[in-house]
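User: Let's play a game. I give you a shape written as tokens, and you guess the letters that built it. Ready? Here's round one.
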């Protein structure tokens, strides 16, 4: 018998999440049955999607959705031996039982000197998102100029670095001077703090006077309206996220993109990384390869303690993180 803790959404978010929207629950878990494993969370991910997805994927009383790296601490399933690590979508729980169908083993040859937490970040879902956005959606080509916002975050930081690997010019925006310094460290050609630049239009023009071939969109809202005007004709936009709208109780309205899309003949495509699930194993190997070669650097914002999950999540939504936000149990 093991005591399992979980964080439950007791009240649907209204505007920015509050501590009182969450409740910590404790339950006793039975021994695993034949075919089952007992998992113990090691690292848990907090991600922006949890905010909008909670509204239509969850009911009040449900355990918060989410992914974790967990250790198999008891096993009655030979596919997942005791002591092995898996990526599990079991949500905000310290312990869980699984029959294995929803588990992904961590890459078999995961290097000793790479933290397993990266399976939730650069060599996990956010890294895959960056890769597919660039290759499958934008079809980014050598010599092109790419703009990415929320650039110092989990997805954005990988986007910029992959674009550099591909021989492109990269311009990034982020919400603090420390983040801008980090982008320079990563090799971004231009970076600016969108909160202090006075005019976003001028900052984008300065970043690339000739405009942008590609825009990896993480933020949406007002930023997007300004950025579309700085695209080159036939520019391509990968709509990955719209974090500036996730906490809105009332949807933001215009300016609407249609006219600028017509006159500049832009191509805009929304995507979810799950579309290319069949490519994940090969793509994770490529991301790990770049990491080991030093072409991809990775930083994490680690919050200690399962009891701090809500605080870590709210911190992410207000931009506390440089790199991937994770919780270490
Ligand atoms: N389509 C997919 O399959 C997929 C998969 C993963 C993620 N995403 C999306 O990709 C985006 C980035 O996700 P991530 O996991 O890499 O998160 P992240 O960038 O590590 O963290 C979120 C960042 O968003 C920025 N932000 C927060 N509120 C903002 C606002 N009102 N305006 C502008 N920026 C704001 C903050 O950075 P600043 O300090 O720079 O503001 C914050 O650090 C999100 O929109 C997410 O939903 C999509």
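Assistant: Ready! My guess for every position:
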């Amino acid at each position: 018998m093991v005591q399992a803790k979980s964080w439950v959404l007791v009240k649907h978010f209204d505007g920015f999440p509050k501590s009182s929207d969450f409740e910590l629950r404790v339950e006793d878990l039975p021994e695993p049955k034949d075919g089952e494993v007992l998992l113990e969370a090691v690292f848990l991910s907090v991600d922006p999607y949890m905010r909008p997805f909670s509204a239509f994927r969850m009911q009040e009383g449900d355990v918060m959705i989410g992914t974790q790296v967990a250790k198999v601490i008891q096993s009655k399933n030979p596919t997942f031996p005791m002591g092995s690590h898996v990526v599990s979508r079991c949500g905000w729980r310290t312990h869980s039982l699984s029959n294995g169908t929803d588990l992904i083993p961590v890459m078999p040859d995961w290097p000793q000197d790479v933290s397993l937490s990266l399976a939730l970040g650069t060599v996990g879902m956010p890294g895959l998102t960056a890769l597919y956005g660039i290759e499958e959606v934008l079809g980014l080509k050598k010599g092109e100029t790419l703009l990415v916002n929320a650039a110092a975050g989990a997805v954005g930081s990988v986007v910029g670095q992959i674009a550099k690997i591909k021989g492109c010019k990269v311009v990034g925006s982020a919400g603090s001077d420390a983040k801008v310094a980090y982008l320079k460290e990563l090799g971004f050609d231009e970076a600016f703090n969108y909160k202090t630049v006075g005019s976003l239009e001028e900052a984008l023009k300065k970043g690339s006077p000739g405009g942008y071939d590609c825009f990896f969109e993480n933020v949406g809202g007002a930023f997007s309206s300004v950025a579309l005007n700085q695209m080159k004709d036939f520019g391509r936009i990968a709509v990955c996220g719209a974090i500036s709208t996730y906490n809105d109780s009332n949807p933001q309205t215009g300016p609407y993109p249609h006219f600028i899309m017509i006159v500049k003949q832009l191509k805009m495509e929304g995507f979810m990384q799950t579309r290319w699930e069949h490519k994940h194993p090969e793509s994770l190997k490529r991301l790990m390869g770049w990491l080991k070669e030093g072409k991809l650097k990775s930083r994490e914002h680690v919050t200690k303690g399962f009891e701090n999950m809500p605080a870590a999540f709210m911190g992410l939504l207000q931009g506390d993180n440089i790199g991937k936000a994770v919780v270490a149990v």
